[in-house]
Write a structure and sequence with these properties.
This protein is of the alpha/beta class. It is built from 16 helices and 22 strands. The strands form five sheets. The chain has a seven-stranded mixed sheet, with helices on one face. A seven-stranded mixed sheet has the order 15-16-17-18-19-20-21, covered by helices on one side. Strands 3-2-6-7 form a four-stranded antiparallel sheet, with helices on one face. Strand 13, helix 10 and strand 14 form a beta-alpha-beta unit. Helix 1 packs across helix 2 (about 50-55). The longest helix is centred in the N-terminal third of the chain and has 21 residues, at about 30-50.
Length: about 525
Amino acid sequence: MKNWYLKPNVIIEPLIERWYAWSHLVSPATAAMNIVGRHLKIMNSYIQSPQIHAAAVLNPKMLGGPFMDYKKSRVEDIKALKERTLQNQSNSIALHQAIIELDNMLKANAKGYSLENLYDQVPELLKGYVELVYDLNNNPSFRLFESLLYSSEYYNKASQSIALWVTENDERPFCLSTARLDEPGVLHLNLPLDHEGIDALSKMKRNPCSIDEIAKTLSIAEQDMDLFKTFFTEEKHPTYEKYEGPNVRMRYFGHACILIETKDICILVDPLISYYGYESTVNHFSDIDLPDVIDYVLITHNHQDHILFETLLPLRHKIKKIIVPRTTSGSLQDPNLKLVFNHAGFKNVIEIDEMEELSFENCVITGIPFTGEHSDLNIQAKTCFHLSFSQFTFLFVADSRVVESRLYKHIHKKMGDVDVIFLGMECDGAPLSWLYGPLLSEELARDKDQSRRLSGSNFEKGFHLVDIFNPKEVYVYAMGQEPWLEFISTVKYTDESNPIVQSNLLVEKCTERGIIAERLFGEKEILYVNAPKMQSV
C-alpha cells in the first residue's frame, strides 16, 4: 500500500459553529457572549445590508471591522448559518442573556450590604455557577465556576469542526468577522478540537501514511474522497536538522513567535507559523523548520494573535509541555487558559505565576509581570517570560506596555541585566470594544472606549526596559506586518504609522548606544556564542 505525505500548504482550520476558533469561543461564558454580541450581530447586519459589508471590506480604513468579506453575495448562506446558530447554540444564547440579567440585577440591588439575600435573584440557569462578590470599594460583581460550566450543557463540543483546504497565498478575510462557509476545495469535518485524528493527520508532514488509513481515522465520507486525496503528495518534505551546537540558537518565525534551541532543550514562544509550498513575497520559516519534539511552548497572553489554534493543533503531537499564565479570577473577561487548552486536547499544561521559576536542565523559565495592553481590564492571564541559560538570558516582553517603569526596576533587582530583549511596539492599538465589546453588559461611551486601548509600548515606555536591563541586543517584533498575519491582525502600516515611527526611534537610540537593535520581519536566525553576538542567517 502506497504511503503519502500531507502537503505543506494544507490548512487545518479549527472552527466553532463555522467561525474561526479562538480561545474566547472555547470557554463557555465568553463563547456565549461572542455568539450573541459578535456573530449574530454581524450576521444580522450582513443579511440586512450586504452591500455595506461589500463596500466596507474594500476600504483599508475599515480593516478589522465587523464586516463579512465574501467575493459574492452569500445572504442565503448566512441566513441558513444564523438559523443553525439559533438552534445549535440555544443554550449559549440563554447563558448570554442570564449573564446580562445577573449583571443588571447586581447594579440595581447591590448597594454595599450583604449579597446573600441576592442569590435568590440570580437567574435560574446560573445558580450554582457563580459567586457574588464586592471589590474593596463595594462595587458588585460575580465570579464564574468556569470548570463546572465546561461540564454543563453550556459547553457545546458538537459545534467544533475543522476545515481542510490548500492555500496558494496569504490572503484571507479577517477571521473574527467572516464565517467559513462552504466553498469549492474546502472539506469540512465535524471533529472536535481534541480529536486524535488531527494529530495523526499532522504527523503525515513527516511520517507518510496510507490515505485510506487516515481517511478511516477522520471518518471521511466516500463522496469526499476525491477532494481529500488532493491534500496529499508523494514528495517528501525537507528534513529538519536538529541543532546540536554548544551555543544558543534563536529563530524568528514572524510576529511574536520565537524558537530558542540548545542541544538539550527547545522552547517555542507564542507559536504562529506560516506555510510553505507556494510563492511568497517574504522569506519565512515554516513548520519544516521546527524540531520533532518541542519541549516547552510559552504562551504570553490570551489574544487571538498569540494563541492560534491553527498553528497549535498541528503541533500538539510534538509539544511536551505548554506553559501559560495562571488565572483563577473567575472573571468573565479572564478565562482560565489551562482549561481552554485542556479542552482543546492539550493535557500537558503548566500554569506559572508572576516571578515564579520553573527550573529544567540548563534552563530556568521565570514568569515576569505583564502590564497594560488589555484596555485596563483586570486580566491575570498574561505574563512576560525571562529565560536563563548557562550563558545567556532572554526577556520576552510580548505586548506589555510599561505603564510604571519602577515595576521593572524592582524586577531587575531580582533578575539582573539581560542579554536580549524582545518586545512588541503596537503602541496605538484597537479600542476596548474591538475585542472585548461582546463581554460588556452595556455599551461604553465612545470617548471612554477610544481611550482604553489594546496598546503596547511606544519609544519612551519601551526604552525604559533598555535603561533598566542594559541588554546587548534589542529586537522589536514585526507587529503583524507579515502578510500571513493580516487575517488575524488586519495591520497595514506605512512609514508614517506611529508604531513604525516609535519603533524606529527605539532602534536608532539603541544603535547610538552601541546596542544591536532591529525591527524584525519575516525570518531571522541568530547564534549566540559565548557572549551575545549576532550571527544572522
